[in-house]
Design a protein that fits this description.
It is a single chain. The protein is an alpha+beta fold. The protein has one domain (2-64). It has helices at residues 25-34, 39-50, and strands at 2-9, 14-21, 55-57, 63-64. It has a four-stranded antiparallel sheet with strand order 1-2-3-4, with no helix packed on it. Strand 1 and strand 2 form a beta hairpin. The longest helix has 12 residues, at 39-50. The chain binds zinc ion. Residues 9, 11-12, 16, 57, 59-60, 62 line the site of zinc ion.
């Protein structure tokens, strides 16, 4: 499963669609059940950690991070 999004690509110098590998939540659900809930800790850590990984441009395939939501344009 691949997740997609769209933001400005500094390499292409224009808005591009980006993709990255999605999380197999069904697999993590099965592991959580099999480990009696212990795997839930890893599942949460992986889900949070994934948010900090870069996306790859569909055109140039360069890894980039989306523009920070904290930067407000005036
Ligand atoms: Zn690009």
């Amino acid at each position: 499963m691949t997740a997609t999004t769209k933001f400005f690509c500094p390499t292409c110098n224009t808005d591009r669609k980006f993709h990255r590998e999605g999380i197999n939540h069904r697999l993590h659900l099965i592991l959580t059940v099999l480990t009696g809930g212990l795997w839930l800790v890893s599942w949460i850590a992986i889900t949070i950690g994934r948010r900090y990984e870069p996306w790859n441009c569909n055109i140039c395939d360069m890894p980039h991070h989306p523009p920070s939501a904290n930067k407000k344009k005036k």
